[in-house]
Amino acid sequence: MSFCDAHNHLQDERFARRQAEIVATARAAGVTQMVVNGSCEEDWPQIATLAREFPGLVVPSFGYHPWYVAERTPRWRDTLVDWLDCTPGAVVGEIGLDRWKPGLAYEGQEEVFVAQLRLAAERNLAASLHCLQAWGRLHDLLREQPRPARGFLLHSYGGPAEMVAPLAKLGARFSFPGYFMHERKFALFAGLGPAPPFVARAAPACARFSAAQLWRARRNGRAAGEARCSIQLSWLFYARA
Ligand SMILES: [Zn+2]
Fold this sequence. Notes:
By secondary structure, the protein is of the alpha/beta class. The protein has helices spanning 19-28, 44-53, 76-86, 109-123, 135-144, 164-169, 183-187, 211-219, 222-228, and strands at residues 3-8, 31-37, 58-62, 91-98, 127-132, 152-154, 172-174, 238-239. It is globular and about 40 Å long. Bound molecules: zinc ion. Residues 7, 9, 37, 94, 130, 233 line the site of zinc ion.
């Protein structure tokens, strides 16, 4: 079985100078692609560098994370467009809304999120979305705004169970980090039937996965191996059928 890590931040300073080692560990565990998400203008060049260093493995993703929106320069959108234009295989993320983080201003988040969602929609690029305690607004904006036809990923989904179906209807796919990998979370999706919309658009090589497959992966120890490789955000969502 091979895996696609649908959302990580390999460029993070926590992993500084250990990227090659982490990539080797991930490859040994069966990870064939990973979507590496930028967070702000400052780290976008590192995303492009990782994509050059690990071609075929790293799917470069560029976006303004809501935590860093206040740091944006007046040219942020143009810079984002430049990175999307000049980086082969680039997708959009991490983008989103956050009303959970203490002290974080909400002002500007919707404007920046919508601008990036529109870019993804115009180019029909996969987009990786972050949302904490803003599910109602996220749903409203997704409903009102153009969305990528291929769908979008809600990474580390922690929203209400009753929003899964309406979000899926708008094109949402869902991913979980390893520490979410327990039956309680999978039960969230029970209402969607045995083949929920877990189709990895960001990683065309990967097809679909079921909760049962993930559960088996965890039981046979593969997830533990992933945890050791320290790509600690979200991983292992899309097992190749
Ligand atoms: Zn993230």
